[in-house]
Specification:
10-stranded antiparallel sheet; about 290 residues; 13 strands; alpha+beta
């Protein structure tokens, strides 16, 4: 069964998912010019579960893992990708087609030894962008290894990487390593058709990032897609899980917890008041803060 057929069948079988995908056609969207690049802001109230998710150890112990097969809704079927992963439709979507790709076994969310899997998924699902949120970098299920994927053509990052001015860091071993000028986000991008060298370069970058005390891996987000017989891999190192405005009270509060999709140019806000008031200066400040 292909992804399109699986997706359509799930919408026919699962009322909640269908309602939420239909609701995407009615979400409010606005564009903000960051100076040199633009982001889209999406008011999406169903994403409150992810944005405000409690991911401390105590909260994780108290709730069943919603990515484990025994705890999923009866309507949520899976499509086996291989003997390690299954493909699910995400019932609280950002993309017109939004997938979650968890490991079949319940293992911690860690990217170092799973990066090759991510490359393979991106190549096999070449109509999709695949992304990874670290345990303290936007993942709402940091206790269960998973990727997400959304249909290509949705994230501004895809165009930014090929159209904006590059700052070349290195160009050797069949891997181009670069950042983007005036991007207002820390990002290291890799472009290559050589999987072995790409894995090696990613692991070298990973090993240079700080692992905070008590944490299992560096704080980062990773976005990958496969196009024109090569991979594009964007790594977003970060220093904070959530910005100060997330915890602020009164007028200073802004419920915004950036993860891969937000850093890729689609900022998702679950509260309408925040959607109405957020400015380009707010987004730039939050990106720089985290």
């Amino acid at each position: 069964m292909d992804i399109k057929t699986f997706f359509e069948e799930q919408l026919n079988e699962w009322l909640l998912a269908k309602q939420n995908y239909d609701a995407l056609n009615r979400v409010k969207v606005k564009e903000l010019d960051l100076g040199g690049c633009a982001v889209r802001v999406q008011f999406n109230p169903e994403r409150i579960r992810s944005t405000a998710a409690k991911v401390d150890a105590a909260s994780l112990r108290e709730r069943p893992c919603f990515l484990c097969r025994d705890n999923r809704p009866n309507e949520q079927r899976d499509l086996y990708y291989n003997d390690k992963y299954s493909i699910l439709i995400n019932p609280f979507p950002i993309f017109p087609v939004h997938l979650t790709i968890p490991t079949i076994k319940h293992v911690d969310q860690l990217i170092f030894n799973s990066f090759e899997d991510m490359l393979d998924i991106a190549k096999d699902l070449d109509d999709f962008v695949v992304f990874y949120n670290g345990p303290k970098s936007g993942a709402s299920a940091p206790d269960h290894m998973h990727f997400q994927a959304g249909n290509k053509g949705f994230l501004p990052l895809e165009k930014d990487v090929v159209s904006m001015e590059r700052i070349i860091i290195s160009d050797n071993d069949d891997v181009i390593c670069f950042s983007l000028k005036d991007y207002h986000r820390n990002m290291i991008a890799l472009e290559s058709d050589n999987k072995v060298q790409l894995i090696s370069r990613f692991q070298k970058i990973y090993e240079q990032l700080e692992i905070k005390s008590g944490e299992p891996e560096p704080m980062l987000n990773v976005v990958i897609w496969y196009d024109d017989k090569k991979w594009f891999c964007c790594i977003f190192p970060r220093k904070k899980h959530r910005p100060n405005c997330f915890y602020a009270e009164g007028e200073d509060n802004l419920l915004f917890s950036p993860a891969s999709v937000d850093l890729s140019g689609v900022c998702v806000l679950p509260q309408e008041k925040d959607f109405e008031k957020i400015t380009a200066e707010d987004v730039i400040g939050i990106f720089e803060e985290i």
